[in-house]
Structures are given as C-alpha cells and as structure tokens.
Amino acid sequence: MAGSRFAYVRSFELPDPVLPGVFMVVRIDGKGFHGFSQAHEFEKPNDAVALELMNHAARHVCQELRGDVTLAFGESDEYSFLLKKSCKLYNRRESKIVTHIVSLFTSAYVFYWPQYFPKKALQGPPSFDGRLVVYPGVQEVKDYFAWRQADTHINNLYNTTFWSLVLLSNPPLSERQAHETLKGTVSSQKNEILFSKFAINYERLPAMFRKGTTVVLAPTRPSSKVRKSKRRKAHPRELRTLHVDIIGSAFWEEPEAGAKAAARAEGGEERSKSESCRGAGVEDGLEHRKRLYIPIPSSVQADAAPFPPWEAPDRTQGTAGLGRWALRH
C-alpha cells in the first residue's frame, strides 16, 4: 500500500524522462543470434522467411504503437523504430519505452514463429536488447536511417560474397579461406568476385536483402474514384512494408520531386545492371538463387500470389515521398 512504512523504497527509483520536443529512436538487436540462426538452420547468406518474420514482428510494434511509432527500419537481426517528437508514451520515460518495444517485438516474434516455420519448432527462446537515442531534427533522423541502410549494404555484400565462396566454390573453400580471400577487398572487388566466379549480379538479388525493410505509416492509397474527385479529403493511414532506397532524397521529398529523384536513381541502377551483365548468356547465378528462394510456407504466401511477399510490386513501387509522413509529427 502507498501509505505503508515500506513506501520509502520508491525514493530509490530514478526518473528517466527523455527531453521534450526531440525525435526518439529505439533500436533493438538480437542477442546471440549467430548461435540462434545455426540452431534453427537459417539459410545463408539470407533466410528470406526469417527476415519476413522479423518484418511481421516490426509491423506488430508499429500497429500497437500506431499513434507514436511512425517509421521502422530493419535488417538481419536488428530493427529501429522512430517515435515522433510529440510522443507522450509513458510520459517519455526511457526505460518504459525501451522495455515495452523490446517486449512487444520479442513476444510477436515468438507468437508468429509457427506461421513462418510450421515444421520447425523453436529450439530456445529468442531475446533482444534495446537502446534509445534522441535526435534533435529531421536531418539527423534521415542520416540515422541512411547510416543503417548503408550498413545493410556493406554487411549483405560481404555476407553474400563470403557464403558464395564457401557454398559454391569448386573445390569448396573453408570459412577461414573465404575470410582470407575477402580481406582488404572493396565493394567493386566483391561484385567482381560474385559476377566472374558465380555469375551473380548483386544488383538483381532481392531488394529486401540489399536495402533492408522499411515500415512506414502513410496515407492509404486512394482509389481512382477518389483521385478524380476535386474535393480533398484526409485519407486514413496504413502501414506500408517497403524495400527501397532511403539514403537518397526521393523517399523523403514531396511526391513530384521524390518521383523525379526516384526515376533518376532507378535509371542509374538499370545502367549499372546492364553494364555488369555484358557478355550475352551470363545467368544470375541460378544455383545461388536456388539457395536464396527457399520453400515458402503456405501460411506466409497466398496460393494465388505469383511471387514471394518480399518481392511484391507494392513494396518497391509508388513509394516516393512516403518518408515525409513519418517526420510531420
């Protein structure tokens, strides 16, 4: 009871409010996920179904904290969540916010595991740690997410090249030999190894692997009838799951400017693809792609879908300017 003689112990609790009027980012990381992925035999270099489970857990967090979390970005075993400046969750107490988001994510990961791995039981409980960092303005937030996506590219290019050397070389290389081969190499050299040795065009690998996953709360896409109407009405928000570039300006700008920037970026990417594919008859590394496209549980993909969910067109198209909605609060 509050009035008991033991109530004095509450005085040892320290207040930990976050500064008002700043953006908050909570980043969670899997603890011991190297061993966890081995125990559950995740595919190398990327297990698409395991990544989609991470995305589902992130969407659960965004849905539960819909009025406060406006953007999330994830890759591998980590996810970052952006909370708006005006967020009043738990009176902005850092410990409460971090533990709640980590708890929501972890419980969702366990709850939805059977949906993504119906024939693979959990061998142990997964766990995640978390931290909260504050950012004063919009530019710092953009730079933070650019940093995480750049890290995604660096890690994925290395891992893709490394596991290609280990799994596809003839004769096969040991992991130590693969590390030695890649020591001191830069991105262009890794791309050359993938293309010359394994006929893998890195730019044609699934965008989810190369660019990570962005979950954003954006206006619902209007129907053609609504678009024709001259009356402006506020559209409800929906969670969009995307695999797009968030380092450039297209994602963050108004639609018209963003669309032009996106078109320029896509044009450059297409030129890169065509240049790297010179030499007719070169495949995209079919054996490697077979390892990338592991069987998809029916609970994850609808029978009528012609492609896995992470390659759905709406995850990579019509995304110009969506990021600005996450920064308006």
UniProtKB/TrEMBL annotation:
Which cofactors does this protein require? Mg(2+)
* Start and end residues of each Thg1 C-terminal domain: 139-247
The processes (GO biological process) annotated in the record are:
tRNA modification
Query: Domain tRNAHis guanylyltransferase catalytic spans what residues?
Result: 7-136
Positions of region (Disordered): 261-282, 302-329
Spell out the Pfam families in the cross-references.
Thg1, Thg1C
Q: Does the keyword Transferase apply?
A: yes
Query: Which keywords accompany this UniProt record?
Result: GTP-binding, Magnesium, Metal-binding, Nucleotide-binding, Nucleotidyltransferase, Transferase, tRNA processing
Which Gene3D superfamilies does the protein's record reference?
A: 3.30.70.3000
Top-rank lineage group of the source organism: Eukaryota
Q: What is its EC number?
A: 2.7.7.79
MF (Gene Ontology): GTP binding; magnesium ion binding; tRNA guanylyltransferase activity
Catalyzes what? Answer: a 5'-end ribonucleotide-tRNA(His) + GTP + ATP + H2O = a 5'-end phospho-guanosine-ribonucleotide-tRNA(His) + AMP + 2 diphosphate + H(+)
Basic and acidic residues composition bias: residue spans: 266-276
Function description: Adds a GMP to the 5'-end of tRNA(His) after transcription and RNase P cleavage.
Task: Indicate the family of this protein.
Answer: Belongs to the tRNA(His) guanylyltransferase family.
Identify this protein by name: tRNA(His) guanylyltransferase
